């Protein structure tokens, strides 16, 4: 089964919601993600970034060997936390596109963006309720956008998921996070995934110049925030390697 970036358009359309992929181009082009000011987002991105950089240094392309069981990266979800994160996202899109603030805010509040995320990534065995799944989807999608690659295999996505799980499992900061904090972290990655993925999918169909700018923005985000060049990484069945 294949991971399809373009499938986000179909998900958005089939949802029958008042907001579509074309409503997110400004969000997708932002060099700073929604929630980037959250300490935990940057902290966990850097935890994984350090792991990817260390793998790039030894140029290893072999599959990782099995080790002891990885600590759980799951969380028990709360509707109250989802409502808070969704409200913060609505505020974010309103600031990004003030001319359409009221319409976008209403659409974000009414549309099940997290459900769309879950339906889109299910083909690769990813699910809601796990920070590693949310981060893996986000990292793979940004690699795809930066490198203009439409498809990635389930094996590749699961390999990145394994990298994320191992990195988080070894992080003392992540181990201390409560369920509510883990949920907010995961759902921030999910909402960024929907906004950036739908923006790029729409641009790829309509405007090659806009698609190129979104691709450059994805690469710039990772260079600036994680000191990683997505265009020098390869997506393999061993995960992201240099």
Short précis:
This protein has 242 residues and is mainly alpha-helical. It has helices spanning 7-14, 25-28, 39-57, 79-96, 101-110, 113-121, 131-147, 154-169, 172-175, 179-206, 208-226, and strands at residues 2-4, 151-153, 234-236, 239-241. The chain has eleven helices and four strands; from the N terminus they run βαααααααβααααββ.
Give the distance, in angstroms, between the N- and C-terminal Cα atoms.
25 Å
Structural class: mainly alpha
How do the strands line up in the largest sheet? 1-2
Radius of gyration: 17 Å
How many strand units? Answer: 4
Tell me the fraction of residues in β-strands, as a range. under 5%
Describe this protein's structure.
The chain has 242 residues and is mainly alpha-helical. It is built from 11 helices and 4 strands. It has helices at 7-14, 25-28, 39-57, 79-96, 101-110, 113-121, 131-147, 154-169, 172-175, 179-206, 208-226; strands at residues 2-4, 151-153, 234-236, 239-241. β3 (234-236) and β4 form a beta hairpin.
């Amino acid at each position: 089964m294949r991971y399809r970036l373009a499938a986000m358009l179909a998900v958005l359309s089939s949802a029958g919601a008042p907001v579509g992929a074309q409503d997110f181009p400004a969000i997708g082009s932002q060099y700073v993600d929604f929630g980037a000011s959250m300490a935990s987002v940057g902290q966990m991105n850097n935890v994984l970034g350090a792991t990817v950089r260390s793998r790039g240094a030894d140029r290893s392309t072999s599959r990782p060997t099995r080790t002891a069981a990885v600590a759980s990266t799951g969380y028990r979800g709360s509707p109250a936390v989802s409502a808070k994160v969704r409200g913060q996202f609505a505020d974010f899109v309103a600031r990004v596109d003030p001319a359409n603030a009221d319409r976008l805010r209403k659409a974000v509040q009414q549309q099940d963006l997290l459900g769309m995320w879950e339906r889109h990534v299910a083909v690769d065995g990813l699910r809601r309720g796990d920070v590693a799944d949310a981060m893996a989807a986000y990292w793979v999608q940004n690699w795809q956008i930066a490198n203009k690659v439409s498809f990635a295999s389930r094996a590749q996505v699961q390999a990145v998921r394994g990298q994320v799980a191992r990195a988080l499992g070894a992080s003392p900061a992540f181990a201390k996070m409560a369920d509510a904090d883990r949920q907010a972290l995961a759902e921030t990655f999910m909402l960024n995934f929907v906004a950036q993925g739908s923006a790029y999918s729409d641009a790829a169909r309509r405007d090659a110049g806009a698609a190129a700018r979104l691709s450059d923005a994805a690469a710039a985000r990772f260079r600036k925030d994680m000191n990683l060049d997505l265009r020098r990484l390869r997506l393999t069945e061993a995960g992201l390697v240099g």
